[in-house]
Amino acid sequence: MYILGIESTAHTFGVGIVKDGEVIANQRDTLKPEKGGIIPREAAAHHYSLAPEILSKALNEAGLSLKEIDMFAFSQGPGILSPLKVGYQVAAFLGSKFGKKVVGVNHCIGHLEIARLATGLEDPVMLYVSGGNTQVITFQEGRYRVFGETQDIGIGNLIDKIGRRVGLSFPAGPKIEEYAKKGRKYIKMPYSIKGMDVSFSGLETFISRIIKNEKIEDIAYSLQETAFSMLIEASERAMAYCSKSSLVITGGVAANSRLNEMGERMCQQRGADFRRIPMEFSGDNGAMIAYAGYLMRDQRAKDIMPKPYFRTDSVDIGYR
Ligand code: AMP
Ligand code: MG
Residue 148 and residue 226: Cα distance in Å, rounded? Predict the structure, then answer.
């Protein structure tokens, strides 16, 4: 069974294909504005203009033609409405043209399921860290439950905002990571964690005050050490609370080596299992949507309109 998945919730347009649960294609392109952040209509324009090319590349990679696809899955939300609509329209059109089922997939569940697939960890605590989302999640009683989350901005957003202030273009994460490696001085920054929830706006305000007086390398280093420690502390608490013995980090920020290193060390200290997710699956991608669609293949196709505020814990997970 071939399932084609489309990702378009924000900056990335991606198409992935799975064959009986195995990823056989994963193509994407990310909008990288020269200045500023992501503007919704520009993201939608990027996705519309690249959709045909990314679609063909994925089909070529899999050695398939469109009529061989058995089901179309798309990222239904959460996300930004304008780019979300692109994935929805492409999937709905292809489904009706070829008379195949179309399923809407929760984007966050895509990140979680591809993490389980790529690491082979059955039932881990999952730290989901991307631009807009920061959540500590684990499976309990039929749903992915959010045990902790950001009270304000996502970790990726924080990093991108600080990056923008020092003239780095989107996505700033990889560049901040490089600067952080050269940082030598730890600047004490606000550390804000309540139970398993975290908050980053205090960090943002603090950094904006010192940004002119400190070296970017030291700021990047201190920012990573502070924010990532908060995330790993929340993850550790969730592991203890839910008696889970493994951790994965998923989402765009999971590409960061320092964050993975901290997760690894924490897990070593508790005798828990930690596995890194490969880069091709950390940021937004179509394969994760195709794979989540595969897991949900027997579910009845319900309402497939885009849902910008689609919550991870609102989905019944019938396949686990
Ligand atoms: P996503 O929305 O899941 O594709 O994640 C995108 C976010 O990941 C953006 O905010 C990026 O700045 C961030 N990101 C990507 N690579 C890294 C990295 N190496 N370190 C930290 N953040 C990163
Ligand atoms: Mg994402």
Answer: 17
Peptide bond into 83 cis (omega under 30): no
Question: In terms of Cα–Cα distance, which of 293, 241, 318, 307 is closest to 102?
Answer: 293
Q: What angle do CA 234, 275, 173 make, to 5 degrees?
A: 65
pTM attached to this predicted model:
0.95
- Ligand 1 closest atom vs CA 257: 19
Task: Using the mean position of ligand 1's atoms as its centre, give its distance from the Cα of residue 101 in Å.
Answer: 32
Identify the CATH assignment for 2-111+281-314 out of 3.10.20.740, 3.40.50.300, 3.90.470.10, 3.30.420.40. 3.30.420.40
Most ligand 1 atoms within 8 A of CB, residue of 253, 281, 284 to mutate? 253
Per-residue pLDDT 10s for the chain (320 aa) are 999 999 999 999 999 999 999 999 999 999 998 887 889 999 999 999 999 999 999 999 999 999 999 999 999 999 999 999 999 999 999 999 999 999 999 999 999 999 999 999 999 999 999 998 999 999 999 999 999 999 999 999 999 999 999 999 989 999 999 999 999 999 999 999 999 999 999 999 999 999 999 999 999 999 999 999 999 999 999 999 999 999 999 999 999 999 999 999 999 999 999 999 999 999 999 999 999 999 999 887 778 999 999 999 999 999 98
Sign of CA dihedral 218, 224, 230, 232: negative
Instruction: Please choose, from the candidates 156, 124, 147, the residue with its C-alpha nearest in 3D space to the C-alpha of residue 248.
Output: 124
Calculate how far, in angstroms, residue 255's C-alpha sits from the geometric centre of ligand 1.
7
N- to C-terminal Cα distance for the chain?
20
Q: Quick check: 261 and 229 in contact, CB under 8 A?
A: no
Do 122-274 and 2-111+281-314 have the same topology in CATH?
yes
CATH class of the domain comprising 122-274: alpha beta
